[in-house]
Design goal:
The protein has 18 helices and 27 strands. With 610 residues, it is α/β, with parallel strands linked by helices. 5-amino-5-deoxy-1-O-phosphono-D-mannitol (M6R) binds next to helix 9.
Length: 610
Amino acid sequence: MCGIVGHVGDEQATPILLDGLRRLEYRGYDSAGLAVHARDGIEIVRAVGKLRNLEKALLQEGLPGKVGIGHTRWATHGRPSEVNAHPHVAGPVAVVHNGIIENHLELRSELEASGFTMSSDTDTEIIAHLVHRETKEGHDLATAIRRSLEHVEGAYAIAVLSESEPDRIVVAKNASPLVIGVSQGATYCASDIPALLPYTNQMVFMEDGELAVLEAEGFTLTKLDGTEVSRRPRSISWSPVMAEKDGYKHFMLKEIFEQPRALEDTLRGRLDRENADIATPEIGLSDEDAKSIRRVILLACGTSHHATIAGRYWIEELAKVPAITELASEFRGRDAVVGEGDLVIAVSQSGETIDTLMAAKEAKKRGAKVLAIANVNGSAIPRMSDASFYTHAGPEIGVASTKCFITQLANLLMFSIWLGRRRGAIDNAQAGELVEGLARIPQVIGERLRITHLTISDIVRDFADARDVLFLGRGLGYAMALEGALKLKEISYVHAEGYAAGEMKHGPIALLDARVPVIVLMPKDRHYERVSSNLQEARAREARIVGVTVAGDTQGQALCERFVEVAETSEALSPFVMVVPLQLYAYCVADHKGTDVDQPRNLAKTVTVE
Ligand code: M6R
C-alpha cells in the first residue's frame, strides 16, 4: 500500500524523505513524489515507477528545504501516472494521502460545481481542494483540515503542507496507520515504523480521529474536534540494521535465515520449563477466563490465515476447545454468530490489515474478547484488542511473509499449551515434551538452513519452469501446503494450489500429468501412510513428486523424484520444520526467474484498503 514520510527540522528534508520512502518500498508502489517548502513556495517533484526515477527527476530539479512530505503510491483511484502521483496540490496546499475516500465522487462534483478544477483522477486531490477552500476562508491549516475532514468519509492518513505555514506539517488519520517520530530538533511522520528508524526510536502512534501539528521543536496532538490529547512517545526496540539486507541478495532470503533468531526472541521468557507451562501474562486472561471460553475464533488474512489453520488444530488437540478459523474478509462480510464466551484471536503481522481489524472490531462489539497476535508494537489491531501477545520477529521487509509466519506459529502453539494446561486437557508430561521441543526448535531449524537452501536450489533447476505446482499435506501439513502454494504464487507468479491430500481425488487429480510437480509434505505423523497413498496416486498420473521428508525416511524418499530432508520432530512441532523448505522453494524459483522477490508485482506488504 502507499507510504508516507514527513520531516520538519534543521536538516535538508529531501535526503531524509527519499531514505524514508526507500525504507517503505516493501509496502509496494507504482509512483512516488515529494513536496518541500523551498524558498519561493512549495516545490513538487513526482515520477512514475521506482524511486530511482524520482531520484533522477530530483537531480534535474533539486529540492532544497527543511520541511517536506513524501509519498509512494499504490494505485487505487486512477492509473499509475505522474499526474495521479502524490503530492496533490490545490492553491497553496500540498497533500499526500494513504487510504480511500469513499464519497470522493460526490465531493468531486460538488467542488467542480463551485469552480474547482481537478487535474488528476484521484480521490486524494479532493482533500487538497477541500483544504484550499477552507484556507481561502481565512482558516489556519489545522482548522482548514479539521473542517475539510468533516465532509470526508473513508480511510485516510494525510500529511499536508501550506505555503502560508512553512514551518509545519499537519497530519491526520482515520483507519490508515500513521506514526509521529520525535527527536532533538526534528519531528517526523510516517505510515510505518521502518521509515523512521535511522532518525529516532521515539514514536507516537496516532489514533483514529486525531490531528497533529508537527514542528521542529515537537508536536501538538488533538482530536479532530480540537480537544487536546496527551500521549508520550514509546521507545521502539527495532534497530535500523534490522531493516537492512545485511549482505543477502534479498530481504526475503535474509528473513528466512533469520527464523531461528526470530523464534528465539519470540519464545524468550515465555517457556516455563520448570513447570511445563507457558508463562505469559500478555494473553490477558485469568485461569478462570481460560476455563470459561466456549469457543475460539481465529481471524486473519493471507499467510497469517494459514498460521491460524495450524492454530486451530493445536487448540482443539491440546486444549480440547472448539476452534474455528475464518478469513477475516469473509467473517466481516456476513452476519457471523459471535458473542460472549467466544475468544477471537486476530492474527496479523502488521497489525493494520483492514479486514482483520474490522472483523475483530465487529466481534468485540458483539461481546467476544479479542486477543491480538501481531508483530508491530502499538499497531491498530493490538490497540483495539483486550490483550496483545506479540511475536518478536523484528521488522519484516519482504512482502512475502516468512519469519513472521513462523513466529505466529510459535505464539499459537504457546497459546494452545497455555490453554490446555488451564483446562486440564494436557498433563505435565505432554506439556513438558512440547515446551522442551519448542525450546529446541530454533536450533533444529538453524542447523539445517544452509543445506536445505543448497538442496532446494538444486531441485529448483529441474522444476523452475513448471507452470502449475500442487502442494499436498494432511493435518498440520495441510496448513503448510497452503502456505507453500501462496509463497510460490506471490513471488514467482507460478500458479500453485495447496490441497488437503485427501481432497486430491475430488478434483485436482484431473490436473496431473508429467508436467506438474507435486510437492508432498511427509512428516512422520498419524497421516503418514495416507499421505503416501495420495503420493502414489499422483505418481500413477505421472506427476513429478518432490517430497519434504524427515531425515532418513528412505521408504518415503524412494517414492519421490527428488526430496529434501527436514529434522524429525513430534507431530505438533512439524510445521516449523516443514515450512522452511517451502519458503526456500518459492524463493529459489523466483530468484531463478528473476522476479522482484521483495516487492512482487501488484502486492503490498500491508493491506489497509478494502
Ligand atoms: O499483516 P498481516 O499478517 O495481517 O497481512 C496479511 C496478509 O496480507 C499477508 O500475510 C500476505 O498474504 C503476505 N504477503 C503473505 O506473504
